[in-house]
Design brief:
By secondary structure, this protein is of the alpha+beta class. The protein has one domain (3-55, 128-284). The chain has helices at 40-55, 71-82, 95-108, 110-115, 185-191, 195-207, 239-243, 252-257; strands at 3-15, 19-20, 26-27, 35-38, 116-120, 124-129, 132-134, 137-142, 146-152, 165-183, 219-230, 246-250, 267-271, 280-284. Strands 1, 4, 7, 8, 9, 10, 11 and 14 form an 8-stranded antiparallel sheet that branches. Helix 1 packs across helix 6 (195-207) and helix 2 crosses helix 3. The longest helix has 16 residues, at 40-55. The two termini are 20 Å apart.
Length: 286
């Protein structure tokens, strides 16, 4: 497994890419800059959902963090496989036994191999640091949040005098988001994250929005994923310097007009591939 640092671009039109439950489900935003935000957790959720669809949530591609999952039940499977009886909140006393239950979880669950997990619940399977990490995604330009009043003819209570109920919906007319990602080969070795797993992850980045459609999320699409592959596991360059080679800006004519962008065509994306550090190669995953 190589080390990778990658830049992932995706956009949304007339939707809410990641609502904030602490703010009435408004699109997440940086209050200082007005730029939109999408959490790493949101992006990982979409990857998990895609893998579950493709592989039917079966080993070795089960999903650990999923809706209505009972985590202790999953942990008990690891102890049963190892022929061990769990003690409340404790790992097995023998190091090799503790390693066996953790290895079972890594072997069977894709998202543990990829993203890691804290499994120190009542039935303790340890902690795993995952090789793949995302930053928050941040929109290239400030976003505008629109609030829409909605009505429905059906009511929730038996009130014959009440003919309809009102609701609210929030959307972003358009936003192009940029996220940074990292793949650590040393952690990949520990979780047994394989080249096949990496190919599945790449496919997910390109297709996961296709199976996550909803009126709330509008039109979301991957636009580019620029990955820097390192020959050395320790890396052949600093991630932030490589990320600086990927620039995305409004086209001059759009900027000159002073209007808000309304599509990916309003941007120009440039990748500086000249004089790369020795041992660095550029791949385009999307």
């Amino acid at each position: 497994m190589n080390r990778y640092d990658f830049v992932y671009f995706f956009d949304v039109a007339d939707g809410n890419p990641n609502g904030d439950p602490d703010a009435g489900n408004l699109p997440r935003v940086d209050p200082d800059s007005g730029q939109g935000l999408v959490t790493d957790v949101c992006l990982k959720r979409k990857v998990r959902n895609f893998v579950s669809i493709v592989h039917g949530d079966k080993p070795p591609h089960e999903i650990y963090v999923k809706e209505r999952a009972v985590l202790n039940d999953q942990h008990e499977r690891a102890y049963k496989d190892a022929g061990l009886k769990p003690e409340s909140k404790k790992l097995p006393k023998k190091a090799e036994d503790a390693a066996r239950v953790t290895a079972f979880m890594c072997k069977n669950f894709f998202d543990i191999r990829a993203f890691g997990a804290v499994m120190t619940t009542e039935v303790n399977c340890g902690q795993v640091r995952g090789p793949i990490q995302f930053s928050f995604a941040r929109s290239i330009d400030p976003i505008v949040t629109l609030e829409h009043a909605l009505t429905r003819c059906a009511v929730t209570k038996k009130d014959q005098d009440k003919e309809r109920e009102m609701g609210r919906k929030f959307t972003v007319p358009y936003g192009l988001y940029r996220a940074h990602g990292f793949i650590n080969p040393f952690l990949a070795d520990k979780t047994c994250f394989s080249d096949d797993d990496l190919e599945l992850f790449k496919t997910a980045l390109g297709q996961m929005f296709e199976y996550d459609r909803s009126a709330a999320r509008g039109q979301m699409a991957p636009r580019r994923c620029v990955a820097f592959r390192h020959e050395s596991k320790l890396g052949n360059g600093r991630a932030h310097e490589l990320f600086d080679r990927v620039q995305c800006r409004l086209k001059p004519e759009v900027d000159k007009e002073g209007r808000f962008p309304r599509g990916f065509a309003d941007y120009v994306l440039q990748v500086d591939d000249q004089n790369l550090p020795e041992g660095i190669a550029i791949e385009y995953w999307v």
